[in-house]
What does this fold into?
Amino acid sequence: MKNVLSAPFMVDMIRTATDMYSQGWDERNSGNISVLLDETEVKKHLDIPAIVRVIPTGFEAPELDGKYFLITGAGSYFKNVQYDPKKNLGIVRLAKGGAEAEVLWGLSDGGRPTSEFPAHMMSHAARMKADPENRVVMHCHPANLLAMTYVHTLDEREFTRTLWRMCTECVIVFPDGVNVLPWMLCGTNEIGEATAKEMETARLCVWAQHGVYGAGRGLDETFGLIETAEKAAEIYLKIAHLPILNTITDDGMRLLEKRFSVKTREGYLE
Ligand code: 13P
Ligand code: ZN
It folds into this structure.
C-alpha cells in the first residue's frame, strides 16, 4: 500500500510550511506554495486513482498541461498543515491546457487550490523558461519586506541595491535582484500575469503592501532566498532612520561577484 504522506516531497512540504509559519511569514491562511512534481515520483508514492474532482482554473498555461503539482489549499492555515496535510494540501494535475486542475489527492474538505493558483502556475511557466530545473513557487507575507514597501521607493534597481547593501550574503544569494510590483488586487489572472513577467528576470518578486514571491529549484533554496531578503529588509528598517556611516560599496560587491562566481543583474552595479 503506497503512502503519499511519507513521500520525500510531502515530508519536505510539511516541514517547509511549518517552518514558514514559525518565521511569522504566514499568519492565518496567508501564503501559498506550489511544487512541480516528477510524474514517476508521484506514481511511486500514490496510486493514481480515478480523478477525485475537476476544478476549472480560469486561466490557460499550455506549457504545464499534464504536469503534477503539490499545492496548498485556498484558505489553508500553514500552522495546521502538519496536523492535517490531506485537508490543507493537494496533488493536482493540470489538464486542458491548464484550464482544469484534476485533484488526485488531498483538499479533502472539498477545497480548492490556493486563490493565488494563477500567479503560481504562470510563474512556474515563466521560471521554467529561465531555469528548466525550477520546481518551487512560494508566496508569503514577511513583515519587514512588506513594511519596506511603505517607506522605500518601489524602483526595482533601487530596491535591490538597498537590500544588497544590508548584508554581505545578499548579492551572492540573489544576484538577479528583487523585482517589485505596485499594489494590485490579489488572486487574479492580472496579478498572475504581472508576477510571471517579473519572474522572467528574477527569482524574487515583492508585492507592495502585500508580500513576496520566491522561486527556486527546491523548497530549502526558495525558503532561503526569501529568508535572506527578509533579513536584509529587517536590517534596513533598523537603520533607515539613523545616520549611515558605513556601507558595502559597489567595488565590494564586485569582489563578491568574483569570489563567489555570481553575475549581478546587468546595470545594477555602478
Ligand atoms: P490562499 O489562502 O488562497 O492561499 O491565499 C492566501 C494569500 O496569501 C493570498 O495572497
Ligand atoms: Zn498573499
